[in-house]
C-alpha cells in the first residue's frame, strides 16, 4: 500500500551547478591503488602526471603544484618578478591572477577586456610593463601572437583552458609565453581535488619552479649522501601522489571532457537562439574553446539568478572584478576606468557547464533561462 499523499509528492529536480567534477570508478580505483602502496606524497605518480601534462600541452617541461594559485605564485617567482616590477592582468578574473604579483612584492595593474571575448586585448597591452598574466577567460584562448609591447615576462593563466587549442598548438605549449599555469580544482577541466601545474620550454625556469615547490632545496650528494642546501626561499607547494594518480586518470579523459563541453555549448546556442540571452563568443575556426564556463549575459541579472536558483539551477558570476575587492582598492581603479569590465560584470551569469550534464539537464537550463528572460 502506498503512503498517503505519495502520488503527488514530487521528487525535487536534480541540482545543476555551474560547474562540477566528473569522477568515475576508474578514477577511484587509481587513487585507492596509491593509498594501498607505500608512497603517498610527491613521488612516481607526480612524475607520471607531469609527463602526461607535457604530452597534452607539447611543452618541454611541466611542474605539478598543490594548487593553481601556488602554480601562479611559483611562475612569478621563477621568472624573477619582484619589488619595483609592474605586472598587468585582466580585471575580470579570479583574484589569484593578481595576487601572484603581490606575493613576490611586485605591483599588479589591471587591463580592460575586449567587450566580446572578455579576454584582455593583446594588441592594447601598454608599453613599459615588466610582466603580464594573460587569462584565457572561460577557456577561450587569447591570441598571444597579437601581443604588442611584449613585457619581459609573459605568464598565461590557463586555469580555465586546459585542453583548449590554438592554430599553433595546445594552450600550455608556451609558443608565445614564458610559462603557462593550470588549476585542477574540481570545477576546472580536469581535477586532482586541489592541484595545479606550470608548463615551460625554458630549462632555467623549470629548475626554478622545481626548487620553489620544495622549500628551495638543492640536493648535493657529492658532499654527503644526506646533504642538501636551502638555496632560495621556497614553499611546500607539492602535489601528493594520491592527487596525481587522480590527475593521470582524469587527463586520459580530457579530450572526451572538452568534446562534451563543446557539445553542450552547441546545444545552448541552438536552444537560446532568438531569446533575450546574449551568448558568449564561439572559438574562431581552427581553435578549440575549453568551455570551463558558459558565461551568458542577461538583463536584470539578479532576478534571473534568483529565478534559476528557484528551479534548482545554481549559477555563479565570474567575476567580481579585481578592483572591487577591498584588498585591491589601493590600485586606484575607479568605477569608470575599466568600462568593458564594468559593463560585462553587470550582466554576466555562468550557467551549468560540465561534462556530467545530460541533454535533459541542458534543456532544463535552456527552458528556465528562456522563461526568466522572456
Ligand atoms: C581557479 C583559478 C585560479 C586558482 O586556482 P586554484 O587551483 O583554485 O588555486 C587562478 N586563476 C583563475 C583564472 C582561476 O579560475
Indicate the topology.
Blueprint: E1 16-17, H1 25-36, H2 44-57, E2 61-65, H3 68-78, E3 86-90, H4 96-103, E4 107-111, E5 131-135, E6 153-157, E7 165-166, E8 169-170, E9 179-183, E10 196-200, H5 203-213, E11 217-219, E12 228-230, H6 241-251, H7 254-272, E13 294-297, H8 301-310, E14 313-314, H9 339-347, E15 348-351, H10 359-373
Parallel strand pairs: 1-14, 3-4, 3-5, 5-6, 6-9
Antiparallel strand pairs: 2-10, 7-8, 9-10, 11-12, 13-15
The chain binds pyridoxal-5'-phosphate (PLP).
Task: Please name the defining characteristics of this protein.
alpha/beta; Aspartate Aminotransferase, domain 2; Aspartate Aminotransferase, domain 1; 2 domains; two-stranded parallel ribbon; 15 strands; 32% helix; binds pyridoxal-5'-phosphate
Give the domain tally. Answer: 2
Low-pLDDT regions: none
| SS class | alpha/beta
H/E series, N to C?
EHHEHEHEEEEEEEHEEHHEHEHEH
Strand content: 15-25%
Shape: globular
* CATH class value of the largest domain: Alpha Beta
Number of strands: 15
CATH architecture of the largest domain, please? Answer: 3-Layer(aba) Sandwich
Within the CATH hierarchy, at the fold level, what is the topology of the largest domain?
Answer: Aspartate Aminotransferase, domain 2
The helix count comes to 10
Structure write-up:
The chain is an alpha/beta fold and 374 residues long. It folds into two domains: 25-251, Type I PLP-dependent aspartate aminotransferase-like (Major domain) (Aspartate Aminotransferase, domain 2); 254-372, Aspartate Aminotransferase, domain 1, CATH 3.90.1150.10. Helices cover 32% and strands 15% of the residues. The chain is built from ten helices and 15 strands. The chain has a seven-stranded mixed beta sheet with strand order 2-10-9-6-5-3-4, with helices on both faces. Strands 1-14 form a two-stranded parallel sheet. A two-stranded antiparallel sheet has the order 7-8. A hairpin with a 2-residue loop joins strand 7 (165-166) and strand 8. Helix 1 (25-36) runs antiparallel to helix 6, helix 3 (68-78) crosses helix 4 and helix 3 packs across helix 5 (203-213). The N and C termini lie far apart (44 Å). The mean pLDDT is 96. The site of pyridoxal-5'-phosphate has 14 residues, from helix 3 and helix 4.
